Amino acid sequence: MMLWKGIGRAAGVAILILAAAAPAWASDLGFSASVGLEVTYTPVPPASYNIGSNLQLTFEIPGFALESETGFDLTGFTFQRVTLGVDLGAAKIAEEIRFEPDFDWNELSLDLSIVGVEIGVDWIFANTGSVQTPSYDMGVVVAFQSEIPCGLGIASVTGFGAIDLVNVLGGASAPFSEQMLFLFTHLDTVCDPAPDLDVTIVDGLFFEEELLRLTFAFQGLLVSHTTWFDELGFAQMVFEFGYDFDDPSLGFLSAIVVDGAFSITKIDVIVDLSIDVVRFTSWTRFAEPTFPVPLPVIFAGQGFGVAFELCGVTVTSETDFDDLFLFEAEIVAIETSIDPVTFVSLTTFDALGFASECIRASVAFSGVQLSTKAEFAWDGVTLVAFGFELTF
What we know:
It contains four helices and 24 strands. It is mainly beta. It has a 22-stranded antiparallel barrel. The longest helix has 20 residues, at 2-21.
């Protein structure tokens, strides 16, 4: 751990020196780097608080990239994440090492791209235990993906000592559903970036999971089939079928989930409509009941997403209803950018009223970006953050 702390410090010093020098030939060589620092204030009930800092460093030259992220708070060192990447054209090699605060993850990746076929192998060594009782296990993930010009795609992911392989494919069990539900997923990342998705390492380097996916998108027809297998055989299947038309942009899609016993456990019905600057999405959910009924699935919830742009301001809203079609949540996001200022507001209401608010603003000039963020709930402030990022 001390070695990687030293590497992180050395990388930071090197980047700062290069930033100060800023030689004219750097741009000719394709050199780029950035330094970012974020300081956060978090109240700790009943009468305390915590202050944390997050230092981010990046360095890139043609064929090589380095990223380092280090965190501290009032208790001391909290995490260190280092990512190294080498681009050899048809082959890419990357390594990610994480300490949180003790050793947590080491992943070595090799990706090959040959004539439209992508092959990836990940070797992962992770701590699957606790802070008090660490336990180290290894996993191997082999992925194969290919796209054919007529709209046919195929993907296969095999995990030895690893599960949750759908995260290798972006985390979406139903790929076309994720595209049509953009308004809903966008609201999840308005105030905070989407988390990095990892597979889960389990005890023993044995076969754990296999994921097979076929997708077909041609002249508006959308079809996908994703099947999971585990050590006992067939585990789950997700099937999508729908259409996506142009002029006006209208899409409708059904996604059906079948478990290992070939019983339907979930059905999603999605309608996505875009007219000029307005986009509307309806998401109806059905799921297996928790109590005995004659039907395999019953109504489980309804969501409506609406987005429109007016005078440079984008407003996105999500309205959710529960399985009794009673109001469950309302989320409203307001985003605008008037160069060089960007402003974002995210407000959440639940059945009891106001639930939370997030406000984020940033200003960028001459390679420098200053940002601030505040989050609060009905009972007070939950987070205040401010920071800067220097790019050169």
